[in-house]
């Protein structure tokens, strides 16, 4: 991350603007300039967040879209986290490419954000992209986040990937079992009963809780 000695103080000043009920145009212009050109990633991230929270939708959306491809991974991650608060009809479609971000923390945050976007994300192709990451991503944290998002979206096209994740690493298996609550069918029942015998006690407990809720 590019930083300077006073970057943290400037980022705090910028972030404060996002908590005001209304911004002056001079302040909006200043935030846009900071989001686009400041040399410190902390300031750019804070400026984008302030615009999304309190700025006019057009300026906020434009700054947010640019932040998604910022050279600083921390700025990209902040932009991804802000996605559920961004106005516009194509938020999910703009977000999906960040599932392939070279920084796994950005990819993880992207999966989580897509899970929060609901039907709009499904309509814009998020399920297929999340299925791919749940099955193939090298980082277990990303696979776990993708599985959780598939459970949150609850689209039937994601069920097979969630079932497959029940044989992944323990943290992913636990998340997959919880995600199965969004689906139904004999294969789901079989996976839950198998998870009751899992080596990981938290996975066993999650399965037990779901099966008990069904009784």
Proportion of beta-strand residues: under 5%
Helix tally equals 14
Sheet with most strands? none
Integer average pLDDT: 94
Oligomer: single chain
CATH architecture of the largest domain: Alpha Horseshoe
Query: Got a strand count?
Result: 0
N-C termini distance: 52 Å
> Superfamily at the CATH H level of the largest domain?
Leucine-rich Repeat Variant
Write down the secondary-structure element order.
Answer: HHHHHHHHHHHHHH
Care to describe what's here?
- With 215 residues, the protein is mainly α.
- The chain folds into 2 domains: 1-87, no CATH class; 89-215, Leucine-rich Repeat Variant, CATH 1.25.10.10.
- It is 69% helix and 0% strand.
- It contains 14 helices and no strands.
- It has helices spanning 7-17, 25-37, 41-54, 57-67, 73-82, 91-95, 104-116, 119-123, 126-136, 140-153, 159-165, 170-179, 186-195, 201-214.
- Helix 1 runs parallel beside helix 3 and helix 10 packs parallel to helix 12.
- The N and C termini lie far apart (52 Å).
- The mean pLDDT is 94.
List the helices and strands and how they pair.
Layout: H1 7-17, H2 25-37, H3 41-54, H4 57-67, H5 73-82, H6 91-95, H7 104-116, H8 119-123, H9 126-136, H10 140-153, H11 159-165, H12 170-179, H13 186-195, H14 201-214
């Amino acid at each position: 991350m590019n930083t300077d000695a006073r970057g943290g103080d400037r980022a705090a000043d910028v972030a404060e603007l996002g908590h005001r009920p209304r911004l002056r145009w001079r302040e909006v212009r200043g935030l846009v300039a900071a989001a686009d050109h400041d040399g410190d990633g902390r300031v750019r991230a804070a400026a984008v967040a302030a615009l999304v929270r309190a700025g006019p939708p057009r300026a906020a959306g434009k700054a947010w879209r640019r932040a998604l491809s910022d050279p600083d991974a921390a700025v990209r991650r902040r932009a991804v986290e802000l996605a559920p608060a961004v106005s516009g009809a194509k938020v999910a479609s703009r977000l999906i490419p960040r599932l392939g971000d070279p920084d796994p923390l950005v990819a993880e945050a992207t999966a989580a954000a897509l899970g929060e976007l609901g039907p709009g994300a499904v309509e814009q192709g998020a399920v297929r992209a999340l299925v791919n990451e749940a099955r193939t991503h090298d980082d277990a944290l990303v696979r776990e986040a993708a599985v959780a998002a598939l459970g949150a979206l609850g689209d039937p096209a994601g069920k097979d990937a969630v079932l497959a994740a029940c044989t992944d690493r323990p943290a992913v298996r636990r998340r997959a079992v919880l995600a199965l609550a969004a689906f139904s069918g004999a294969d789901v029942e079989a996976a839950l009963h198998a998870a009751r015998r899992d080596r990981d006690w938290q996975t066993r407990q999650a399965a037990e809780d779901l099966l008990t809720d069904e009784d």
